[in-house]
Each structure stands twice: as C-alpha cells, then as structure tokens.
Amino acid sequence: MKRHIRLAVLLLFLLSSFLLPTPPTLSQRAPNVEQRVNALLAQMTLEEKLGQLQQLDGEGNGNFRPEHPDLVRKGLLGSTLGVRGAQRTNQLQRVAMTESRLKIPVLFGFDVIHGYRTIFPIPLAEASSFDPSLAERSAAVAAQEANNVGLRWTFAPMVDIARDPRWGRITEGAGEDPFLGAAFARARVRGFQGDNYGAPDKVLACAKHWVAYGDAEGGRDYDTTDLSENTLREIYFPPFKAAVDAGVGTLMSSFNAINGVPASANAFTLTKVLRQEWKFDGFVVSDYTSVRELINHGIAANEEDAAAAALNAGVDMEMVSRSYNMFGPKLLQQKRLSQATIDEAVRRILRIKFRLGLFDRPYTEEAREPNALLRPESIRLAREIAGRSMVLLKNDRETLPLNKNLSSIAVIGPLADERRAPLGWWAGDGKEENTVTPLAGIKAKVSAQTKVVYAKGCEIQGDSTAGFQEAVNLAKASDVAVVFVGESHEWAGEAASRSTLELPGRQMELVQAIQATGKPTIVVLVNGRPLSIGWIVNNVPSILESWMGGSESGNAIADILFGDVNPGAKLPVTYPRTVGQVPIYYNHMNTGRPPEAENRYTSKYIDSPWTPLFPFGYGLSYTTFKISNLQLSAPRIAANGKLTVSVEVENTGKRAGDEVVQLYIRDLVATMTRPVKELKGFQRVSLQPGEKRRVEFALSHEHLGFWNREMRYVVEPGEFRVMVGANSVDTIEAKFEVTN
Ligand code: GLC
Questions:
Q1: CATH topology for 382-581?
Q2: pLDDT for the residue numbered 27
C-alpha cells in the first residue's frame, strides 16, 4: 500500500509543477540571452537596427502619437517616453508583436522619480531620513504602480551630487555627499529592479545624469562643468558606481559639457570608465535631444556629425531627436560609423529587453491596473516616509510639539492649502486631488474643540500684500500661528535655476508680520532646495523643513507638529546663509589659510560669517541625545586592514526618538589635499528615553583611500582623524594610523 501512496504523491507533485507555474528565475526567464540576442541581430536590417536605437516621446496625456504605430510596424521605433496606461501600451505593443517583421517588443519608459500615482517625498527629502531602506521601499511601490500601467522602465534614480542650491535639480537627488548618495543610489536601484527587473512588479532603472550635471556653472541648469578627474572620481562618480554595482540596467547621458566634451559624446565617461573600468553591460540612453544638442555645443556642425559623435562615444539609444535614424545609413556608408558600433548598441538594448522578459511577456494585464494605484499600504508608507524625512531646524522653548486640544490655531501662508507643490516637479502621474495639504492634515489632527482658521496671506510669487491684514488678524485671535512658505513646484526641478535663495514674492514679509503679532509662531518650509532664511532663524522659535513631502505631506506635517511623530531627519545638503556663499559644502579642503575670525588674512568673507546657516547632517529632535565614549579597535591598521569604531548613544530626554549617528574621517597628510571631513558611515537609531546603545562602524580600504596624482585609488600611510557626531560639526574624535 505504501508504495502506491508514494507513487501517488510523486504524480501529484509532477502534475502541480505543470499546473502551478513557479515564478521563473532570471536565467529561466531569459535563458541564453546572448545567443538569443545574436540570433535576432543576425536577422535585422540596418533600418531595424537603427529603429532599436530610437526612443520617441508620446503625448502629455500618455497617448502614443499617430505616427507611432506605423514606425513600430516597420521596426523603426524601439522605445517610447511617456506612453502609459495598460490598454495604450498593449495596443502599441500588439502592433510590434503581431504586425512587425521581427516582433521586437517596444520598451515603455517614463519619469517615475519618486512615485507614479502615490507620490513620495522628493528624493532630497528621502535622503534627509538617512535611512536608505525607506527609499528602497518607496521605489518598490513606484515600480509596482508603474509596471501595472504598462511601464517597464523608469528614468530614475537621479544620482547627481549637488553642491549648489541655485540648481533646481538639487531637489531630485540625495544631496552633496558621495557616500550618502551612493547609499541611496543602491537602495533606489534595488527598490525599482529587485533582483530581477523582469518580475511583474518591478521596472528597469536608469541612473542619471551621467555625469557631473550638478556641477553646472552658476547653478544654471545645462551649463558647463569644468572639474578635475580627481573630483569626478571622488565626488560625482561614486553614486553611479554604486548603481552599476547594484545592477542598474541603464544610464542616461547628461546635457552638460564635461571639461569641453559634452557628456553625450564623451568617450572617457561613456566608454573608458563605464565599459572598460566598470564593465557595465546595460545600455545608455541620451537625455532629451542631447544628441542633437551637440550642434549647440559646437562639437557637431549638423545632425550627421552629432549622430557619429554620440554613437561612437557610447550613447546607445537616442531620446527624441532622430539623428541616428536619419543619418546612420549615410554614416555607415561613409565609414564614419562602423557596423560593429551599431551592432553593439543594438546588442546592449536587446540584452536588456530579453532580461526584462519583454519577448516572453510583452503585454500588461489590464485587469490589474484599477487596483494597482493608491493602495492603502502605499499611502501609509508615503506618510511614514514623509514623517521620517522632515528636518526640525529650530525649536526654542519647546514651542513644538503643539497640544492637540489647544483652543485655536491660525494656519497661514500660500503653501498651507496648496496641492501641487508637495508633489514636486517630477510628479509622475500624481493627481493634486490626492494631496493631503497641511491645512487638511491639521484639521484632521486636532480635537473637535480646536478652532482652525486659515488665511493665505499672499501668493507664493507676486507683489501683493493685500492679504496680510486678514492673516495678522487671525493670528492675533489664535493661540498659535503656523506659517507655510516656500516654493512652487515650478521652482523645483529642471530648468528652475535661481539667482537668489530668498523666499519668493512677499512671503518673508508675511512671516515677519505674523511674528510681529507676538503670538507663538512656527514656520514650516515647503521647498525643493535650501533657502536663505536667516531672518526666520533669528526671530522665529520653531522651524520645520518639510521639503516637498508628497501626497501625504499634510498628514506627516501634522504628525510632527502635534508630536505623534518625533522628527529625526538630518540635512543632506548644507544650508547657506546667503547665496553669496555658494558653493558651500561640508567636505571642503582646508586651504593654506583656513578661516580664522581674528586673522584678516584667511579664507573667509569680510561681510558674513564663513560658516553655513545649518551644516550638512544637522537636524533636531523633540528629545535630546548624547554621543560619547568613542572607541577604536586598534590604534593603527595596515592599508588593507579593518578598523572598528564605536560610540555610545543615549537618549537623555523624556520622549522616544531617532538619532542619526554620523562617522567622518580626515586624512591629515597625503600626496593630495584631502577634505577636512568625509562621511564614511551613518546609522539612524531609535531609542527610548534613558536608553543607551553602542553603535559600531567598520572602516577599511574602501573608506580610507583617494584618487592620487597618477589617477590610482590608493590608501596612503599616515595619521587619520575619525569624528563621530549627530551632524558634521558637533563631533567627538580620535586619531589612528595607517601603516604601510
Ligand atoms: C528631461 C530630463 C531627464 C528626463 C528626460 C525624460 O529633460 O533631463 O531627467 O528623464 O528628459 O523626461
């Protein structure tokens, strides 16, 4: 009898493995990718090959353009930007899969930067959390929503280091530090792609903008960058290297010229570094018409030259401009392009399409779309992340948190009940009606007895102060006034460079008028970059930097204002006092004459302190912490050795809270100047009142080295300083030695 049972069980198992398909692994999904790529390549005409190198944009509402189906039918369009919606993408995909000669699927891409329909805080805000796991989780939700509307590719994460808040795109990255930037780049790539970007709720990621786009002269978007290879390798490369090491499938070449060679025609960055040094085997897409813009840069006389320059340098897919398609055959015939170069670009794109599983599963299940967006758990996550990303800049006399039972609260300002700004510039397909504004969040938070009154006071931009009196009257009649000021979404993001960092319009005067009432005043900033808020810092007791906090920002702000969330975030960018200090960043060089107040002849300003308004890594809490007892595992290590650094962190206050313990090093003497401080570790820890914890960091070769004059990464022997603290200024320190 037992034998029959065993046989029956075996049969059942075999049957189930056919009936219940287990999700295939990456190699099962796309077996023998290289063979399949080469087999397909061998069948393609030149026009079909050039078609795979072409991406065109759809209409703003997500529709494809009338000419797209025919281009796809002829194999002349390999990818679209902005075409979205399961039904629409399936409709265009059906043309590719049933009417084209070789049935190569279309790759649908879109800017899903910090959310598709559920919009998370801007990346600069998420970086303020100093908790990359949050960015991984938000990217995973963004991928799940995007995949369900037919998208398989997002042009994210943006991993540009930004040291200049005049540059509007500082909003999109992780701030000024390469170590923090690398951590968030890894996390976002993992969130978008998972361990298999062909999985149903994942998308292909795109690390952008390759490279040094944030170093734009004058903070002017698209402007020239001119910097040493050392600075490229020390500051701007690390987040991209982290993304490549995390398996990112694509990169996007940037608009800017790098040391005289535009990034979209730069063989050093596109081929020597990316391909030869880093062994990247995905593909590079240009930025929007950045191939054709090589003519404006003056390194191409026409689109023919532009196509040759870009493709030969290593830009595989051309976004929107059509130089490759129009002039590829002629350039090949003139031997200004080789067949091998064209084939390699096509191979890289086909490789990614196979890895995406697009050939096997080209369509999106339309039935999934309606329930895929704004899921309750996604909205809860957006609120959680926003609350962990807002930075408490000042809180004198414990003005915050507010009491939920206070009798009246005046909610003032042009950003108190504004739905679009919290979504940031890159709002995916986010809808304003899904934004919880601060006014709504506060109303939902306070007790039924609390009277909540609201006055806009003035516009975000604009000269009128006609609304001031109403706002002042409401503040005077209330227990407390909360003023919401900052920037509109058009002032954060692409092509949003500013010549000053002042609050736009008459907002600063509105704050001054409310403060002048003598009522307890709190300022909440809604903005995408550090602003010049010196007067507010000197005169207003409490300031919360909420950034652009996404769909749930109003609830998160209310959670913090009324103490349901204790803020624990830190600044990922330096806050300058004035725009005149820019560029200003914490990991600067010491110079031969470091600033000394009493000595005129040192590096500083005669009309302003040389220090920032708030330093990198700064942020307060409703409780207090003590960091002490710095210990090193050894007084010296070999260049390839490991050192453990630990400190004790104690919550010395009366309420639970988070502290971000930051570890910095300084290489005191080296064959090149080294920064006075470099972030090489951070940990966000949650502690109950009175709780103590020892926090450990490991330092090794990868943390202690730099790129030397011979352009080699080296760890040189000598003395190092290690500094640990709750920001980049207030630290405790010790020294250790690296021996040969
Ligand atoms: C834009 C941006 C880039 C974006 C692309 C597609 O110009 O520079 O970040 O992904 O075009 O929208």
A1: Rossmann fold (3.40.50)
A2: 46
